[in-house]
């Protein structure tokens, strides 16, 4: 999906001994959105914006090894080896000739044997090239100015982490001018380094620069156009995580010490096998317990009592990303955790000051994770609300930029459920977000030109077919067998095919079988067929 921005100049942070000027360059193709104020809570802001930076650049996918040290050593050895070789050259000549002819024979033999290997390797490198290229593309953070707060949002390039920093106006000791809306801001690593220089004793001006929107007759060259083509899966992931926030959830508070303990368990242990999950054990009136699998290390959160009235066990994935909160620990008063259910995204809100809070969302999946399907449901159509009613709901929210469903319902004399369904649909399309802390919906246009959710709903035709098969009840005779570290599920699909799927304890499809033509032709090389996927979806639904 193509994103085009036009920035007036670059974002910069100017530092002198007595003052810091934080100046964000907004996307001027968008409706004018700006903000000028003086920061009051400087250190929390510095720490929180730095944590957000770590989300933007987070990539928990495989990282290639850094070979630079080895190459330097190699270079220094070169002369030594050349000198050694020249010294013995004359005596070795005849020996070389003899070995050379032997070697040639061995080589041609080897060529025959290894040809298939190199072919496969070349394919793999081409795949890496494409993938690494995609890893360079990151959507600059989205910034939204509202009547009560300014918030930044970003989504990591590996599609596993969502970050949002909300700064209420109490974070500023003076707000000069602002205009509500959403814009992208020019962002760079350099900017991150400059943020580190924010100090309590320095007056810090914070500006989403209104000047960019001035009509300029000269100096067009100061504008910088940026065009990026982001993978659809990334945009889909962003929308899925946003939509997850609107779902029903189980919420509880944790102490910063609890999160510090989680991080310490993860630092001290490395998992070789799954499940790589945290199992939260929630019992009314009892301390919350987090069990780290597969080691079954229990962390009892002694000061954090579960206030809900129903006992629950919920397992969530993506736990190593919790380390992104480490920098916030010294300035966080408490964390609120929101869980949607096993295998679903989870959210951790760090309360920094009264009105400054940081939300970390863990999607529970990473890029190119075709074998995960728990998230598929998030972007499904929810509503049979007529288009004009939906439009009215949107315009009502737009009036104040933020609102609760009950207020909108009473103002429009609509059923609250209708209002909620409409707003969830707008969230799926990237036009609205749900604020977990304040329980309000907020206007936030992710993409200037809007997003075609229909085109984005499914990642492939196979996904779509599988989802429809499951929805239409074409999956029958569902049976499951649990083994120690996996579950085998079998079903009869479309009254025609015997399908089975093996899901490991990280909820990932590791194998499947089907009696259809697709499976016969491709086996699992192109991922599971629609029937295998539908079997899995039907099992998840149950
Ligand atoms: Zn099949």
Morphology call: globular
**Biggest β-sheet: strands ordered side by side in the sheet:** 9-5-6-7-19-18-17-12
Radius of gyration: 27 Å
Number of strands: 26
β-strand percent reads 25-35%
Oligomer, anyone?
single chain
Bound molecules: zinc ion
Number of helices: 13
Largest sheet: 8 strands, antiparallel
Share in helix: 25-40%
Low-confidence stretches: 132-137
Structure description:
The protein is of the alpha+beta class. Among the domains are: 68-133; 381-456, Orthogonal Bundle (Arc Repressor Mutant, subunit A), CATH 1.10.10; 461-541, no CATH class. Helices cover 34% and strands 29% of the residues. It has 13 helices and 26 strands. It has helices spanning 42-56, 68-87, 89-136, 189-195, 232-244, 256-268, 387-400, 405-412, 416-428, 453-456, 461-471, 517-522, 530-541, and strands spanning 2-8, 12-15, 19-24, 34-39, 142-145, 149-155, 161-168, 172-179, 181-184, 203-208, 223-229, 250-254, 278-282, 287-292, 297-305, 312-316, 334-339, 346-353, 356-362, 402-403, 432-435, 440-443, 475-482, 486-493, 497-504, 509-513. The chain has an 8-stranded antiparallel sheet, with helices on both faces. Strands 2-3-10-4-8 form a 5-stranded mixed sheet, with helices on one face. A 4-stranded antiparallel sheet has the order 15-14-13-16, with helices on one face. α11 packs across α13. The protein is globular, with a radius of gyration of 27 Å. It starts with a strand and ends with a helix. Residues 497, 499, 514, 516, 518-519, 529, 531-532 line the site of zinc ion.
């Amino acid at each position: 999906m193509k994103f085009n921005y036009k920035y007036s100049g670059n974002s910069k942070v100017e530092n002198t001994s007595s003052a810091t000027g934080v100046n964000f360059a907004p996307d001027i193709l968008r409706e004018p959105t700006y903000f000028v104020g003086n920061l009051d809570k400087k250190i929390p802001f510095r720490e929180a914006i730095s944590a957000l930076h770590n989300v933007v650049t987070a990539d928990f996918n495989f990282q290639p090894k850094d070979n630079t040290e080895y190459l330097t050593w190699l270079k220094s050895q070169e002369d030594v080896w050349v000198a050694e070789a020249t010294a013995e050259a004359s005596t070795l000549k005849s020996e070389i000739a003899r070995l050379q002819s032997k070697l040639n024979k061995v080589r041609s033999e080897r060529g025959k044997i290894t040809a298939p290997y190199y072919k496969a390797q070349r394919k793999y490198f081409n795949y890496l090239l494409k993938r690494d290229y995609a890893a360079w593309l990151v959507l600059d953070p989205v910034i939204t100015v509202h009547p009560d707060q300014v918030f930044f949002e970003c989504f990591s390039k590996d599609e596993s982490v969502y970050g949002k920093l909300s700064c209420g106006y109490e974070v500023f000791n003076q707000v000069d001018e602002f205009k509500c809306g959403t814009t992208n801001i020019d962002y760079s690593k350099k900017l991150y380094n400059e943020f580190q220089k924010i100090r309590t004793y320095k007056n810090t001006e914070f500006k989403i620069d209104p000047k960019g929107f001035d009509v300029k007759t000269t100096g067009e060259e100061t504008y910088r156009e940026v065009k990026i083509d982001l993978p659809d899966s990334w945009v889909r992931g962003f929308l899925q995580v946003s939509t997850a926030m609107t779902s029903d959830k189980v919420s509880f508070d944790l102490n910063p010490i609890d999160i510090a303990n989680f991080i310490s368990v993860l630092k001290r242990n490395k998992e070789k096998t799954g499940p790589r999950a945290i199992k939260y054990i929630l019992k009314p009136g009892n301390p919350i317990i987090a069990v780290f699998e597969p080691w079954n290390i229990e962390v009892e959160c002694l000061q954090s009592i579960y206030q809900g009235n129903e006992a629950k066990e919920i397992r969530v994935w993506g736990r190593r990303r919790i380390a992104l909160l480490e920098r916030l620990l010294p300035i966080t008063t408490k964390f609120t955790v929101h869980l949607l259910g096993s295998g679903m995204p989870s959210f951790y809100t760090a309360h920094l000051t009264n009105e400054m809070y940081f939300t970390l969302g863990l999607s529970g999946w990473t890029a190119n994770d075709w074998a995960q399907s728990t998230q598929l449901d998030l972007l499904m159509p929810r509503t049979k609300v007529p288009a004009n009613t939906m439009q009215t709901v949107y315009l009502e929210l737009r009036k104040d930029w933020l609102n609760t469903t009950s207020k909108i319902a009473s103002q429009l004399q609509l059923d609250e459920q209708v209002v909620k369904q409409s707003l969830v649909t707008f969230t799926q399309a990237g036009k609205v977000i749900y604020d977990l802390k304040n329980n309000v919906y907020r206007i936030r246009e992710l993409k200037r030109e809007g997003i075609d959710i229909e085109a984005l709903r499914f990642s492939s035709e196979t996904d779509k077919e599988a989802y429809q098969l499951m929805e239409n009840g074409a999956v029958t005779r569902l049976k499951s067998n649990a083994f120690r570290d996996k579950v085998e599920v079998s079903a009869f699909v479309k009254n025609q095919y015997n399908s089975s799927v093996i899901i490991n304890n990280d909820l990932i499809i590791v194998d499947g079988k089907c009696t259809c033509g697709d499976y016969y032709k491709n086996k699992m090389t192109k991922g599971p067929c629609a029937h295998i996927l539908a079997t899995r979806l039907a099992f998840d639904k149950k």
